[in-house]
Amino acid sequence: MAIGLAVGGEPGSRLSHKLAMPVSGDTVLRMVHSAPLPDFAAPTVVGIDDWAWRRGQRYGTIICDLERNCVLDLLPDRNADSVARWLKSWPGIKIVARDRAGLYADGARCGAPNAVQVADRWHLLNSLGDALRHAVGRHRHNLAAAVQIMAAAKRPITGASAAPGLAQLRADRRAARRERWDEICRLRAQGCPTSGIGKQLGVDRRTVQRWLAAGGEPEHSRPHRPSHLLAPFEACLEARWASGSRVGQQLWRELRQQGYTGSRVTIARWAANRREREAPEGAAQPPPTWKAPTRRRCAWYLSQNLDQIDAEAKLFLGHLFAQAPELATAAELAKRFVSLLGGGDIAELDEWIAQAANSELKSFANGIARDVDAVRAAITTSWTTSPVEGQISRIKAIKRQMYGRASYPLLRRRVLLAA
């Protein structure tokens, strides 16, 4: 049975033959299924989180004993009723640490009404980061203005290095995103739900939710990486370049006839870089422009103390706050909340919620207000769902070992018996 718990059915059978104790894979699994489940001591502090059967589609629930650091049970679904039934079977539970999902809060209220609920601090900080990112997105025009000021301080922009065709392509895509955003706003104003908007526009419901939360269409900024598709054709490109063919569109057409399957944009970028290399020797080369931070990076800047970021980022934040004072307020509130979670004065939480409710963090503050008792417990206690995350990683390893084909009873037994 130990072999089956460690490696599974067929791998266990192969291992048993190597150990001169040959058994079939089915026999190994029968031994695992027939083994009695462990008798756990009555828990008093449990952690609850979800685990993915199939990410984004189907989830189960894992419940761990945080005092003994072991898995108590795996539930096949993620709903409040299942959690409540399980908690009722252990009436001695005093503390329930959980993520911020409302269904787990409801399940804990019904199944263990006298237990103290503790919101996980990592999930709180993650939600704060999302709120800051959405706030930056709502001020994307102010962000662009701050970036332009930083770029102008580096050097005056004297012409684009990208090919005109590439610039036009980017402009067309940006215009298409703008049209889609206008259509989302129109349908939303008519009362259409996000799922209905997604069906009408042919996009995922979560994309619609993300755009609405951000207050506008996204501005894409992808890093440029060398194309492995272009490598076999570089000699041909150099020869055509030397012969005087300098138009990226024409070069792309010629390579297509030779079997190149990459995009026209890649060739346009290659041609632009080739022109830069042919600049006369001794000519003054403009220094690189300032690279604009992503929204996620901006959100991280807003949550950090100034002594934790470099001088250039501080200068950028100064320009950004001058363009959007609301973000300066949001940054100050974010730092105060992080300080509270680190063991601050719990009496300040209500004041923080009242101030944040009138800021760019309004939605986040409303969520904290709805779950304020669990957030208070997160500030005053040391319990967290971090050990549960470690057990979820173990579940992932077991699932991959069985190629994602394990039934719920087998997966549950391998997790519980191995614990």
Query: How many runs of DSSP E, i.e. beta strands?
Result: 5
The poorly predicted ranges are: 156-163
Helical region count? 21
Give Rg in angstroms. Answer: 28 Å
Percentage beta strand: 5-15%
Percent of residues in helices comes to: 55-70%
CATH topology of the domain at 45-120 and 384-418: Nucleotidyltransferase, domain 5
Largest sheet: 5 strands, mixed
CATH architecture of the domain at 45-120 and 384-418, by name, is 2-Layer Sandwich
Name of the CATH class of the domain at 45-120 and 384-418: Alpha Beta
Order of helices and strands: HHHEEEHEHEHHHHHHHHHHHHHHHH
Q: Class by helix and strand content? A: alpha/beta
Largest sheet: spatial strand order: 3-2-1-4-5
Whole-Å distance between the termini?
Answer: 14 Å
CATH superfamily of the domain at 45-120 and 384-418: Ribonuclease H-like superfamily/Ribonuclease H
What is the mean pLDDT? 84
Global outline: globular
Characterization of this structure:
The chain is built from 21 helices and 5 strands. By secondary structure, it is of the alpha/beta class. The protein has a 5-stranded mixed sheet with strand order 3-2-1-4-5, sandwiched between helices. Helix 5 (102-111) links the parallel strand 4 and strand 5 (116-119). Helix 2 packs across helix 3 (25-34), helix 6 packs across helix 14 and helix 9 (194-201) crosses helix 10 (205-214). The longest helix is centred in the middle third of the chain and has 26 residues, at 164-189. It is globular, with a radius of gyration of 28 Å.
How do the helices and strands line up, and which of them pair or pack?
Layout: H1 2-7, H2 9-18, H3 25-34, E1 45-54, E2 58-65, E3 70-75, H4 80-88, E4 95-98, H5 102-111, E5 116-119, H6 121-138, H7 140-154, H8 164-189, H9 194-201, H10 205-214, H11 234-242, H12 248-257, H13 264-277, H14 295-303, H15 311-323, H16 325-341, H17 348-356, H18 362-370, H19 372-380, H20 386-401, H21 408-418
Parallel strand pairs: 1-4, 4-5
Antiparallel strand pairs: 1-2, 2-3
